[in-house]
Amino acid sequence: xxxxxxxxxxxxxxxxxxxxxxxxxxxxxxxxxxxxxxxxxxxxxxxxxxxxxxxxxxxxxxxxxxxxxxxxxxxxx
Length: 77
Description:
The protein is α+β, with helices and mostly antiparallel strands. It has helices at residues 9-18, 48-63; strands at residues 26-30, 43-47.
């Protein structure tokens, strides 16, 4: 970025993969929940509502000690 501003790596990786700038409303989600894993195969673009729903499901699963993992959640297509 030429203006000297800083961009989160996962957003940069996704913009390069998509070939366009992300909208401010778009969230880049780490599928495996590891924020250090910025491989494009571990990233997906979601709306704020979709992202909130995924994390709501994760929170419910952890509260109920369910056997859910990120890989078992139904992610938006």
